[in-house]
Amino acid sequence: MRILLVEDDELVAEKLVKNLITQNYAIDVAADGQAGWELVDAFTYDLILLDVNLPKLDGLTLCRRLRSQGMRVPILLLTAHNSSSDKVMGLDAGADDYVTKPFDVDELLARIRALLRRGSSTLSPILKWRDLHLDPSACEVTYNGQPIPLTPKEYGLLELFLRYSNRVFSRDVILEHLWSFEELPGEETVTSHVKGLRRKLKVAGLSEDPIETVYGIGYRLKPAESQQPKSKSKGTKKPKQLSSDLEQKAIETAINVWQRVQEKFTNRVAVIEQATTAMLKDDLDDSLRQQAQQEAHKLAGSLGMFDFDEGSHLAQEMEQLLEAEMPLNPKQRQRLAEVVAAMRQELERAINQQNPQLLRIEN
Questions:
Q1: Over 70: is that where the pLDDT of 315 sits?
Q2: Average model confidence (pLDDT) for the chain?
Q3: Residue 125, preceding bond cis, omega within 30 degrees?
Q4: What is the end-to-end Cα distance of the chain in Å, rounded?
Q5: Mean pLDDT of the region 20-43
Q6: Which of 132-136, 211-215, 228-232 holds the top average pLDDT?
Q7: How many angstroms separate the CA atoms of 185 and 19, rounded?
Q8: What is the pLDDT averaged over residues 3-15?
Q9: What residues pair up with 129 in beta bridges, in sequence order?
Q10: Are 50 and 101 within 8 A, CB to CB?
Q11: Of 253, 183, 192, 221, residue with least CA distance to 2
Q12: Please, are residues 264 and 11 in contact by the beta-carbon 8 Å criterion?
């Protein structure tokens, strides 16, 4: 499955991409609404994750434009605004779902799976072909209850065929679904991956190839009407767990991400501190206020993504104060100064904290 993420906060985007890749999705990223529009115009996507507050072309406008062009791709809006009116505006603009920042990554992944099910030929959370099962929530493929190890692209191929069982896919369409535009290979790569998938399914015990070659066109899932009665599996399926090597690799990846984002968090707080100091001196111009407001908005989302809930709440309050009509009254000025100071302390605590909660990569 191929997803377009339109998000201008590079910290949120980086965290999301890492989690989405673990679910075997191919991801394209656009940092502004106009770039997002150009990618949608050029490529086919199974789902769009769309931030509301974007430069050049805001998320709501982009959403309306996509719907006005007849595009039915599922759209999930992401935003730090959580009022009922904001949600209504997003849904009325044509979005299929709406998630507020900070959000739980597991919940977001579940919402993505639900939206993908709406557009597929099956509403079951488990995709099946006879005794061949694919569980999107666990990224696991089994045959007669036994796991089949697949590469991410082989998994993506099988999910594509199972999810859209009535469609024939040409090689170029498969490329658009499973590869990002930055890594787009030639059509012979699809043939190679299909061969690899068929070989592994045969080794796993499938006596009949579930993938049918439509000569001159591409591939599709073979009809399973002649399937045998399914034997009931005894016992309870155990939840999938990461091996120690994968878990250690995930932790190391998260640590590297955290080391890179510390400076960006600090720089964002510094901009807000500069604006607060200027405001207390009655020397705050509109340009610096808008910049500080944007940095507070980004902090609210990105801190929440890294499980710093207190910092996220402080950033939301800073954003609200910076959005208020200027000049602020004495009480509002004092509160902004207090919140900014608290944010600085919270950020320093997070940086100095050993083994912070954010070092968990969700799977």
A1: yes
A2: 83
A3: no
A4: 17
A5: 90
A6: 132-136
A7: 23
A8: 91
A9: 132
A10: no
A11: 183
A12: yes
For residues 197-216, give the mean pLDDT.
91
221-225, 238-242, 249-253, 305-309: range with lowest mean pLDDT: 238-242
For residues 131 and 300, which has the higher predicted lDDT (pLDDT)?
131
Long-range CB contacts (within 8 A, 24+) of 86-90? 86/52, 89/60, 90/52, 90/59, 90/60, 90/63
Buried b (16+ CB within 10 A) or exposed e, 57-84: bbbbebbebbeeeeeebbbbbbbbbeee
Q: Which residues pair with 212 in a beta bridge?
A: 220
Please name the residue ranges forming H helices in the chain: 10-22, 33-42, 59-68, 84-92, 105-118, 152-163, 171-178, 187-203, 244-280, 286-305, 309-323, 330-352
CA-based torsion, 148, 153, 154, 156: positive or negative: positive
What six digits make up the tokens of 33? 């609404």
The two structure tokens encoding residue 346: 């919270």
Query: Which residues sit opposite 98 in a β-bridge?
Result: 77
Domains and CATH numbers, the chain: 2-118 (3.40.50.2300), 127-221 (1.10.10.10), 244-351 (1.20.120)
Residue among 86, 87, 85, 81 nearest 102 (CA): 81
Residues 59-112: tens digit of each pLDDT:
999 999 999 988 889 999 998 877 888 889 999 999 999 998 888 888 999 999
Cα gap 45→26, rounded to integer Å: 10
pLDDT of 151 strictly over 80? yes
CA distances 118 to 121, 164, 231, 271, Å, are 8, 11, 28, 43
- Amino acid, res. 256: N
Contacts of 106 (CB under 8 A, 6+ apart): 362
Phi, psi of 141 (to 5 degrees): -115, 130
Write the DSSP assignment of 236-302 as a string of letters: -PPPP---HHHHHHHHHHHHHHHHHHHHHHHHHHHHHHHHHHHHHTT---HHHHHHHHHHHHHHHHH
Length of the chain: 363
Q: Which residue has the tokens 């999938």?
A: 240
